[in-house]
Amino acid sequence: MFHRWRLSDLAITIRDVAKEAGVSVATVSRVINDSGYAHEDTRKVVLEAVNKLNYKPNEVARSLFKRKSKLIGLILPDITNPFFPALARGVEDYLQKEGYRVIFGNSDEQLEKEMDYVDTFKQNNVVGIIASINETDSEMLSELSIPLVLLDRTIEALPSVYADQEQGGRLAAEKVLERGSKEITIVRGPKNVKNVYQRFEASYEVLKEAGVKVNILDSNLSFNGAKERAIELFQKYPQTDGVLACNDIVGVAILNEAQRIGKRIPEDVQVIGFDDISISELVYPGLSTIHQPAYEMGAKAAEILIKKINQEKLLNIHYKLAVSFVERKSTRKIGK
Amino acid sequence: MFHRWRLSDLAITIRDVAKEAGVSVATVSRVINDSGYAHEDTRKVVLEAVNKLNYKPNEVARSLFKRKSKLIGLILPDITNPFFPALARGVEDYLQKEGYRVIFGNSDEQLEKEMDYVDTFKQNNVVGIIASINETDSEMLSELSIPLVLLDRTIEALPSVYADQEQGGRLAAEKVLERGSKEITIVRGPKNVKNVYQRFEASYEVLKEAGVKVNILDSNLSFNGAKERAIELFQKYPQTDGVLACNDIVGVAILNEAQRIGKRIPEDVQVIGFDDISISELVYPGLSTIHQPAYEMGAKAAEILIKKINQEKLLNIHYKLAVSFVERKSTRKIGK
What we know:
Chain A is built from 14 helices and twelve strands. The first copy, chain A, is an alpha/beta fold and 336 residues long. In chain A, the strands form three sheets. Chain A has a six-stranded parallel beta sheet, with helices on both faces. A four-stranded parallel beta sheet of chain A has the order 7-6-8-9.
């Protein structure tokens, strides 16, 4: 199972074997990879040459000729945000069933790292890439010669799987309104993370139309600073009775701070998060949130990628999945 | 930046260039990689051959000869457990400063996947591996021809970075005892995850010696089932007034369930987790826990790996980092 590398081994290529056996490279490839017809005598001669030269097929070298390595590259923005490991789980489970292995890259929402991983994956002969990337150069990506599917983010020209952020933002606003909040604070994510910003825009539109008081607070999407944002929120807007958080990490921090300063959840202030990461269910009170079907999104992206790898025709290239409201104890019951 | 592949390109190797230029492969390599002396005339002849044959150095192909690719493979047991992304963060930040890129594999605590990733990484010419792996065949791993450092887990014969689990288990037990609990439930992790089991054994020893009533509940380490374990705990041991959880995920679930059934934290029951993942600080009440220096462990493993890659002598091969008690609101104050 483990291949011992010696410098001499590295020098022997499939072409040496072909030369030794007196056949073409393609023939050697077919024999070694058992991937097509080869006469019994030919097979024998090739295998003798393989043994004589101590040729060790290297998966990478093999794939240079056969291009059938079973590696997929997955680029995530931030593995410390539980939403992305959840996406990755969906991708991995699906691909594993199909015999592929997944290697991950963590891009920290940086364009340079994103493109660097695309390059690294290509250089290491992955057969497809799934990327949850933020700023994108769609022209550069469209020119990629290996199949790529975007996940959680979308670009016109590329196959993408994502969730209905606009529906999510609308839902959150509608739910907090119908449950009686009158002064609502939206904690919005960074403007350059477009899909998250869409949530804010959709929520804001609903609330503006309803004529309620709306406060806006800016936040990032990670654990770093979530606590500070929560403290800031109640200092700036002590009268707020409803909070829409850009994601569950921020939502949990807000639940914490509200209780710490003595507010009752949900009587004094309701909180709705976004994502439905595992922790939302485990905190007390449970965090009401907008469920993103992370696992299904990951699996769908994997399914589409395999179709592209197999050069099947795709009916759609954009797959938008619905979100839903998950009611827990951080929101009031209807009519209260 | 992006390399367009054509089949003809794949057929041209460094050996063709050497042949065309009338020099050795090593000479071509030195010229192309600018990695050693080459006479100006030689350089000229080689570059002419490169252009004539349209030779495109492939990072992988180059590394087959030069073995200087800057890729590190990192194997984690479960990226959906926030502790491991935190370890990864430490690894990545350190390696990035040194010019390396990290690709991840997620092993799900399965030996087969662990070994599969080791193999995949080797085949794709990573120059070193950091692995947080569980069951291990130390002989197989010791035979690996590329540098490997274990993280969070340890084997005699291999360089490892890990935290003092025994100290952690002891601390947790001492703290809950000195804060007044009389009937303590230890929620222990799976026996086959040795480092986690050590926590249990150390806690148990302290509690047994103190003569208090001790209950034991088995649990896994993930979000899956944490809620159910918590429910089961209070059904089986309704009088328990102190809980030591195998990790923070389980600790948070227990905090939740305790409050749901009307227990006051920490007056009726104290809870101590393990790890100090970000969420421990964000829940209400904050979860007291044993801090594992995840980031520092990751950075240390990266530092050692680079030393091994550069074939520097290692003074130690085992690095055990201390843990510490983080006091939050889920435990009582001393004297109460």
